[in-house]
Amino acid sequence: MADMIELASELAYMAEHPESFTKEEMAAKLAEASKAISKARTLRRYPGKKKPLSREPRSKA
Predict the structure, then answer these.
(1) In terms of Cα–Cα distance, which of 28, 24, 32, 43 is closest to 3?
(2) In angstroms, how far is CA 11 from the centroid of its own chain?
(3) Tens-place pLDDT, residues 2-56
């Protein structure tokens, strides 16, 4: 959770001072945020699991 707060603070600072950052730096930070949001959504959908179950068909044994 602290990482998300830190990331949000960094993004807010970048938004307030865009002249201090290159487009590449901003893009990299947005990509990092996107991955963090995706991970948070996955953890919310599947609490207690790191990854959702694969959707591969089960073999009949």
Answers:
(1) 32
(2) 13
(3) 688 899 999 999 999 999 999 999 999 999 999 999 988 888 888 776 655 556 5
Quote the pLDDT of residue 50: 61
Place of tokens 């991970």: 39
8, 40 in Cβ contact below 8 A?
A: no
Tokens of 18: 């865009």
Question: Which residue's structure tokens are 């953890």?
Answer: 43
Structure tokens at 28: 């990299």
- Could you give the CA distance from residue 10 to residue 4 in angstroms, rounded to a whole number? 10
Contact 36, 4 (CB under 8 A): yes
Which one, of 28, 48, 57, lies nearest residue 10 by Cα?
Answer: 28
